[in-house]
Design goal:
- The complex is a heterodimer of chains A (about 475) and B (about 375).
- Chain A has about 475 residues and is an alpha/beta fold.
- Chain A contains 20 helices and 15 strands.
- In chain A, the strands form 4 sheets. An 8-stranded mixed sheet of chain A has the order 10-9-8-7-6-13-14-15, with helices on both faces. In chain A, strands 2-3-4 form a 3-stranded antiparallel sheet. Chain A has a two-stranded antiparallel ribbon with strand order 1-5.
- In chain A, strand 3 and strand 4 form a beta hairpin.
- In chain B, helix 7 links the parallel strand 12 and strand 13.
- Chain B starts with a strand and ends in a 10-residue tail after the last helix.
- Helix content of chain B is about 25%, strand content about 20%.
- The longest helix of chain B is centred in the middle third of the chain and has 14 residues.
- In chain B, the strands form 3 sheets. Chain B has a 7-stranded mixed sheet. A 7-stranded parallel sheet of chain B has the order 8-9-10-11-12-13-14, covered by helices on one side. In chain B, strands 15-16 form a two-stranded antiparallel sheet.
- Chain B contains 11 helices and 16 strands.
- Chain B is of the alpha/beta class and about 375 residues long.
- The chains are: A alpha/beta (about 475), B alpha/beta (about 375).
- Chains A and B meet through helix 2, helix 3 and helix 20 of A and helix 5, helix 6, helix 7 and helix 10 of B.
């Protein structure tokens, strides 16, 4: 007799396995996706899922192996899998320990552009009315350095921040001075159209390693239609500014964001081509935010989520094809979701965080000293809704701001692991709480999930990603690469 | 293949007084004060310096011996021995090469005992008291040149010695602070948190442990290592090691029982053990138990090259450092070349007769000598 035992000696007894917590969602008539609470997933045939739950799965089947190693089922002796699930859960929520990283300074509401989808900007020469003062900036910096986070990012927002560049300079120099003692990992970003960029400004950015985040909506006609300014030259100014900024600061120091408008629909390939043309290595195919004008106007109604999904999926498929042709180009919204699908890391994107990233991950200091839980929150306020104003720099302390009822209630009430319907949703591990959106639409932070355009949008994108991976192994490879970019 | 141990031709005629470890020297100019601690290796014709502790005479270099009673004659198979090498001479006339200065593949065998019983073990375990091996290792460490770059500890399972093994690491740190250490372990004893904590407290500047995982399916892993519950302990061991910030390499040997699950194992490592320092995917060595289990283990590497490519791709996409060891270059897909490493220990690396006209031998990892002797892929095709 051989001194070696055969495989069946090590194979568990049939039907003795235990189910670990998981949820499922059908993809079509035959297939369901099952997910565990750290976001691992397996696509199964519906009947197979019945076998799994009925403990009829045989230990010799491939599916048994797969579900056991991906922590959907366990044998009584498997204790490492519980330890690993715990470890991955801790990793998933480890960002919370660090608290606020991103601090937005709205240094001016004034802007040279008058974009239709923007509610906050003002066409005004009155600096006093819409610009942040040094006194307000000082108060904001005090709050910034109270954050326990080792990494601090200060992002200048507008309006057009370059119209109040003096305060940008003031904040950068003051922050760096504080940081001589604080020793944080300090980063600066200016969100700008680049239309008003000058050599002096670029010199300052170079000296202080400031990143530029700009806007490109698509080809010249679309971009200029979306982003009117005197002279109708927004696109040309962007192109020139981009080149200048790359020459001076380096390729990686300038990025571009697009906003989807009703006029963008049907033009997704042109928009992507425009990004390629300017040698950008990715694009964020964003939904149109319901804030600003849009929410109460015809344009938002006309622009329903189905149309956006069509736009998005066409764009994503095109980008995957580009990658297959050897062009490394990323769609960033997919890459955020994929990071959550393929790893235990949370990329820390406010819309896809649970608990919500509002206030925790990012906080907004408005030009007038009001503090908001997110960029969307201050847009709501421009529509007359101050629900997510969590304090004022001149009247509140750090503790008052970050323990305000407005913030804590929103975080608590929208937490997806206890929110009705979210708790049953297979996509919950990849999704976010989004209290501000649901409040804007439904008047409360939970909203009604079956009617929520947010849910519909996330579910639509996730299902598209899953199906693509299921049918196209090459696309799956590309997606795993994107997942590890964040 | 080099012969690392064997019988001497003739030991010194006096009684077995001179046995044990010797550090070799080929330096005739060695100051007299150092000679009494060294053995002189005669591998050329010339004047033999006096005053050495012992003499090793390589066959074919017969000279007038200064002290025949302190001389051991060696066969020509030990031609490779050189300056600063360490050998062990036993009372019954066996010699073992313990350390070779001109090699980066030196491993010290700490025991032949093991709590796994792997189907393809190249060093089949024995249930014997071999604590003399551990004891000898402490002495060897003192004799190894202090500029040694890297040193391996292997078994059997080195960690079965518990605290004594940790003491050996500490001893190595004291005598060879600049030498990288690489331990081969099945990782199971590291499931004991206290043991792992004490291991970490050695605070060795450059210590890595290589631990095998053969499948993401616990049953398959347990079958390959012939030990129920081994997978669970090994994974917990790796988690403990990383908890205490120790370097870990995962090693996977590819054969008929492991190749199908390789892409899923890569996925498992990426999802659960992303923090490991590297992953080594290794070809099968035709020696030890492998020969007994050849029917359940052998698969031509060319038949699993797709799984190999997929696993490398997954690990690369997750940013895990991956290395493919012990595979002839002509049996893998070109997409894994960036991860391809020539790694077979110099003393057991050869080429097949088909390789003669190949133009890429310099890039190729070649074969284990045991593979050349005991059978290898029929798909070897020279690059021309």
């Amino acid at each position: 007799m051989s001194k070696f035992s055969t495989l069946d000696k090590y194979t568990p007894t049939v039907g003795k396995y235990e189910l670990l917590p998981f949820r499922f969602e059908s993809l079509d008539n035959d297939d369901v996706v099952v997910t565990n609470f750290v976001g691992e997933f397996v696509i199964l045939k519906r009947e197979k899922l019945n076998d799994v739950v009925g403990k009829k799965l045989l230990p010799t089947e491939e599916t048994y192996s797969l579900l056991r190693s991906r922590h959907f089922i366990k044998e009584a002796s498997d204790s490492a899998s519980i330890e690993l699930l715990g470890l991955k859960t801790r990793t998933k929520f480890s960002n919370l320990r660090n608290f606020t990283n991103l601090h937005l300074f709205v240094v001016s509401l004034r802007c040279d552009h008058s974009c239709g989808y923007c509610q906050v900007s003002r066409q005004s020469e009155n600096k006093a009315a819409f610009d942040m003062t040094e006194a307000t900036a000082d108060k904001a910096l005090e709050i910034v350095f109270k954050s326990p986070n080792e990494a601090i990012k200060i992002e200048f927002q507008g309006g057009e921040p370059l119209l109040n560049f003096e305060i940008v300079k003031y904040v950068v120099l003051a922050a760096k001075k504080k940081n001589e003692v604080q020793k944080r990992d300090l980063q600066f970003v200016i969100t700008t159209t680049l239309a008003l960029i000058t050599d002096e400004i670029l010199d300052f950015c170079k000296e202080h390693k400031i990143y530029l985040s700009s806007s490109l909506d698509g080809p010249e006609d679309l971009h200029n239609q979306n982003r009117p300014r005197p002279g109708k030259d927004s696109h040309a100014r962007f192109v020139e500014g981009l080149k200048k900024a790359r020459d001076k600061l380096g390729y990686d120091s300038v990025s571009a964001l697009m906003t989807t408008s009703p006029a963008s629909l049907g033009k997704v390939r042109d928009i992507i081509d425009e990004y390629l043309k300017h040698d950008l290595d990715g694009i964020f195919l964003r939904h149109l935010s319901p804030y600003g004008f849009a929410i109460k106007t015809k344009s938002y109604k006309a622009y329903n989520v189905d149309k956006w999904l069509e736009f998005y999926c066409e764009g994503l498929d095109y980008i995957v094809e580009l990658n297959k042709q050897g062009i490394r180009f990323t769609e960033y919204f997919a890459s955020l979701l994929l990071t959550k699908m393929f790893s235990a890391n949370d990329p820390g994107f406010v819309d896809l965080m649970n608990p919500s990233g509002a206030g925790i991950s990012a906080v907004v200091f408005n030009y007038d000293g009001d503090v908001y839980a997110s960029d969307e929150s201050r847009m709501l306020r421009e529509m007359g809704d101050t629900s997510f104003k969590i304090g004022n720099l001149h009247t509140n302390t750090y503790e008052e701001i970050f323990t305000s009822e407005a913030l804590l209630n929103a975080l608590d009430d929208s937490f997806t692991m206890s929110a009705p319907m979210c708790t049953d949703c297979a996509f919950e591990p990849w999704c976010g709480a989004e209290p501000v959106f649901h409040h804007a639409i439904f008047g409360d932070v939970l909203g009604r999930k079956p009617e929520s355009e947010f849910c519909k949008r996330i579910m639509g994108v996730v299902k598209h990603l899953l199906k693509k991976m299921q049918n196209d192994p090459e696309a799956k490879d590309i997606f795993i690469r994107w997942a590890n970019k964040c | 293949m080099l012969t690392l141990s064997g019988r001497v031709i003739k030991k010194s005629s006096t009684e077995a007084t001179q046995s044990g470890l010797f550090s070799l020297s080929t330096n005739e100019q060695l100051p007299a004060t150092l000679r009494s601690q060294k053995a002189f290796l005669i591998k050329k014709i010339g004047v033999i310096p006096e005053g050495f502790l012992h003499y090793f005479l390589l066959e074919g270099f017969d000279v007038n011996l200064p002290s025949p009673e302190r001389t051991t004659r060696l066969g020509s198979e030990f031609f490779y021995l050189g300056n600063e090498d360490v050998v062990s001479l036993s009372e019954d006339g066996r010699i073992r090469s313990i350390y070779r200065s001109d090699s980066n593949h030196n491993s010290i065998l700490l025991t032949e005992q093991c709590n796994n019983y792997c189907l393809m073990c190249s060093q089949p375990p024995k249930q014997v008291d071999d604590s003399w091996l551990l004891k000898e290792a402490f002495d060897v460490i003192r004799l190894i040149p202090r500029n040694a770059k890297v040193l391996g500890f292997t078994g059997g399972e080195p960690t079965i010695w518990g605290q004594e093994f940790i003491n050996l690491l500490d001893h190595s740190k004291n005598w060879l602070p600049n030498t990288s250490l690489h331990v081969l372990s099945n990782g199971r004893f590291f499931a004991n948190e206290d043991f792992t904590y004490r291991y970490s407290k050695v605070e060795h500047p450059d210590l890595m442990v290589g631990i095998p995982i053969y499948s993401s399916d616990p049953s398959v892993h347990d079958y390959v290592v012939q030990a129920e519950g081994a997978f669970d302990e090994t994974i917990k061991g790796i988690l403990n090691l990383k908890r205490f910030k120790q370097k870990v390499e995962i090693r996977v040997v590819l054969h008929k029982q492991t190749y199908k699950g390789l892409p899923e194992l890569a996925h498992y490592i990426a999802r659960n053990l992303l923090f490991v320092d590297q992953v080594a995917l290794m070809g099968l060595e035709h020696t030890g138990f492998t020969r007994a289990n050849i029917d359940s283990l052998w698969i031509d590497p060319i038949d699993y090259k797709e799984q190999l490519s997929e696993a490398v791709r997954i690990l690369n996409n997750y940013g895990v450092q991956v290395a493919v060891y012990n595979h002839p270059l002509c049996l893998v897909n070109p997409d894994i070349f960036p991860s391809y490493v020539k790694s077979i220990s110099d003393w057991k690396n050869e080429f097949a007769k088909e390789c003669k006209p190949c133009t890429r031998k310099n890039d190729c990892g070649g074969f284990f000598s045991s593979g050349i002797q005991n059978g290898y892929s029929h798909s070897i095709r020279p690059f021309l």
